[in-house]
Amino acid sequence: MFLATALVVSIAFPVATRAVTVADKRAQAARLKAEVDAQAERIAAADRKLRLASYDVHDADARMRSAQARVEAAQAVLVTARRRLASRAVNAYVHGGQVSFVEQIVGSDGADLELRRHYIDAALRSDRLAIDALQRRRDEMAASERGLREARQAAQQSVERVRASRDQVASTEAVQRANLLQVRGELGDLVRQQQQRDFAAALSRAERAAGVPQQSPAAPPAPPPDAVSAPAPTTTATSAPPTAPVDPPSSPGGIWACIREKESGNNYRAPGGGAYQFQLATWQSLGGTGLPEDAPPAVQDEMAIKLQQRSGWSQWSTAAACGAY
Fold first, then answer.
1. Model pTM score
2. What is the pLDDT along the chain (325 residues), one digit of tens a residue?
3. Pairwise CA distance, residues 214 & 212, whole Å
């Protein structure tokens, strides 16, 4: 009966999904980081292709402009040659050229137009041949110009395709980077909660060793180890239990310099919270007065170290990228 009842209960109420652990969250963050890095490589490759395609368009434009100039020059030469041929034909018809032809024309009754045409053909044959050659050359250059125009259009289409592909990759990378930031924030919460539990356990052991009577906590029990259901971290003035202290650096370099660079561009006067982008409520909870950006750099450094010792690295979403974990 007991086994049957247990089986029915297990079917009706399936076992709850296990809590997310720090190791799970770290693995998820590592996977997202690898995806973001891969997308960044794809973006760099797309940028290189886009530059090469743009160079092709620029080169096609230059060659097409040169071809257009040659066609226009050939057209001008052809027009000039045709005008010269027409002028010479008129002169040959009216005034004559070679003596034998002139004598025949003068001795005729003026009705021998065929003779005149024969003279014009003989006198102007070389000019017509030259004009025909110019015409062929102009047609060849016009065909070359059309080919260059088509090549330029193909290059422009290639640029547009590469740009669209690059934009799509960049959009995907932005989504993945946002997911990575969220996961890193959740990982920071997990680590901070684990630090709080470790500190509370160490404090309890120290009190037992000193003979201090234990009191039942009024607050709800702490979550199981490595479990989390907290949202992404923000720089707020939450009154969390103190964490294990972190030795302040001898100078605000290393991780601190990286955080300042990512939060404010290392600008202690940056609006909205100074170098470390404190929220005003957080700043005041640390004992700060006025606006964070109005405080001297040394005071902002001191407050940042104090906040880290109190609430952990998770107060800065950029800490993970700076190697805090």
1. 0.39
2. 444 444 444 444 444 456 788 888 888 888 988 888 888 888 888 888 888 988 888 888 898 888 888 888 888 887 887 787 777 666 665 554 444 555 555 555 555 566 666 666 666 677 778 888 888 888 888 898 889 989 988 999 989 999 998 898 888 988 988 888 888 888 888 888 888 888 888 888 888 888 766 655 444 555 544 444 444 444 443 333 333 333 344 457 889 999 999 999 999 999 889 999 999 999 999 999 999 999 999 999 999 999 999 999 999 988 888 888 7
3. 6
Return all residues near 89 (Cβ < 8 A) that are at least 6 apart.
Answer: 120, 124
- Amino acid letter for position 109: D
Q: How many CA atoms does the CB half-sphere of 317 hold within 13 Å?
A: 18
How far apart, in Å, are the Cα atoms of 187 and each of 1, 65, 155, 294?
45, 59, 47, 32
Q: What angle in degrees, to the nearest 10, is found between the helix axes of 297-311 and 255-264? A: 110
Residues 149/71, Cβ–Cβ less than 8 Å: no
Query: Cα(16)–Cα(7) distance, rounded to whole angstroms?
Result: 16
Q: Which two three-digit tokens encode residue 112? A: 């021998």
Q: Which two tokens stand for residue 66?
A: 């040169």
Structural domains of the chain in order of their starting residue, each with its CATH number: 21-200 (1.10.287), 234-325 (1.10.530.10)
